[in-house]
């Protein structure tokens, strides 16, 4: 599975454990309370670990894009036929400003990153 799916699955398990912990506290069931508090702490550690891994992957992708020798904004005409642009320019990576990578790069418009000028 991808990091995003694993993270979502862990968040779902964490929410379920928190709801069960609240129910156990309502019943004053000490054995279940201790079980769910341990489970919650383990899940939170896993979530923190996955978020760190995800941040590392994102920064690695950001660095790879910044190291490409050529980048420029994509014109409206090129955006209209993006498939043609991708076929004509080998190795181009197009980043939208509203994606996570686009926000990290602080882009204002759709930008293409390529190993050579296009």
From TrEMBL:
InterPro entries in UniProt: DUF2810
Domain of life: Bacteria
Coiled coil: 4-53
Keywords: Coiled coil
Protein name: YibL family ribosome-associated protein
Organism phylogeny: Bacteria, Pseudomonadati, Pseudomonadota, Gammaproteobacteria, Vibrionales
